[in-house]
Structure formats: C-alpha cells, structure tokens
Amino acid sequence: MGADLSPKIRFSNEEIIEAAFALVDEGGWEKMTAKNIAKKLNCSVQPLYREYKSLNEIKDEVVKRIIAISNEYTSVKHSEIVLISMTLAGVHFAIDHPNLIQASYDLEGSKYPEFTKTHEETFEAIRKDPHLKEFTEIEAFYLYLHVLVYSHGLSDFIYRGYLVSYPREKLVEIAQEAVEAILEKAKRKKANEVEEKVDADVNGNA
C-alpha cells in the first residue's frame, strides 16, 4: 500500500485557540478537551497536535486571551475611585462571561504569573488613588483584600445563577453601594485612630 498523499487538514494557531477559548467561554475548563476542540473545528485531533505539542500549550494561550478580555473590562472607568471601578468591571465581566471569570479564579495562585501581575498592577493603581491617600500601604492592601473577597463572592453568585433575576443595573448598584460602605467604614476607622492618637499626644504633653 502506498503512502497517504491526501492533503493534510491544517488550521492556524488562531483558529485553534479561538475554538478552545469559545469552549471555555461556554462551559469552563472541563469543556476544553482535544476532542471538543476538534469537534468545533470539524476535524480529528491530529491537526491540533501539528500546531501544539499538548493541550497545556493551548491552555496557556487561552489564559492569555482571558486576561486580555479581563483587561478590556477593567480599562473602562466606572468610577473615579479605583476600588469601585474594578469591582463594577468585575460585575460586568461576570454577567457577560460567567464561565471565563470562574475559569480565571480557578487559575489564580497556580503556575500563571500573569494573574499575580494583574493584582500587582491593580494594587499599584489603588496606592496612587488620591481618594485613598490617607491609608498606609498595609491598610490599603487589607482594604483591597476586603473588596476583592466581596467582588469574588458576588461574581461567584452570578456564575452560579443565584442572581439571574436581577438586571445588570441592579447588580451594579448593589456592588457600588457595598464597596462604598466598605470604604466609608475604613475611613471612619482611620479617622477615629487619628483622633485617638492626637488625644493621646495632647494628654501626654499635658
């Protein structure tokens, strides 16, 4: 039997990543298998492995795509206050791409330093925010952590469909009010600490 001279089906890297990304957007990482990618491209799995050595290489590229989309959302200025703006961006991202935001949470703290870099850049923006200038670096970090925990929790509720009956505008309003309350509490605590220190200094010098 002679060699198979039929033309080999080839797909560009972009086509493969686009198919893989669409699968994650539809159903999370569990749906991104070689078989499902091939099915989406209407081919066997062989063309995938002509372009990529493993599924992990494809996953790495999908992660970059997720981060790029996340950055598009966070680049939109929803508020003059960074913490509020980033939270509202997260709400919009979770509503539009619930599986993507959950996929990104599944990867945080893993082998992908891109997520650490994103957090570092966000915190740097928080430190430069004139609305938060009264806080020390450690105070700003815990404030960021507090808001991050709330934001992740809200996004998870959206992902699981618990808030499906709420329109986008209402979820944005809830998120903004919550972060404003967190900030107000932190500012009151800081003001009280400053006042107590002043009183202590006055009494110490009396």
Mean pLDDT comes to 89
Fraction of residues in H or I helices: over 70%
Number of helices: 9
Strand content: under 5%
Low-confidence stretches: 1-7
The radius of gyration over CA amounts to 23 Å
Q: State the total count of DSSP E strands.
A: 0
The largest β sheet comes out as: none
End-to-end Cα distance, whole Å, is: 105 Å
Question: Structural class, please?
Answer: mainly alpha
Order of helices and strands: HHHHHHHHH
- Overall geometry: elongated
Features:
9 helices, mainly alpha, 73% helix, 0% strand, 206 residues
What report would you give on this structure?
- It is a single chain.
- With 206 residues, this protein is an all-alpha fold.
- It has 9 helices and no strands.
- Helix 1 (13-27) packs across helix 4 (55-74), helix 5 (82-96) packs antiparallel against helix 9 (168-205) and helix 8 packs antiparallel against helix 9.
- It starts with 12 loop residues before the first helix and ends with a helix.
- 23% of the residues are buried.
- Mean pLDDT is 89; it is low at 1-7.
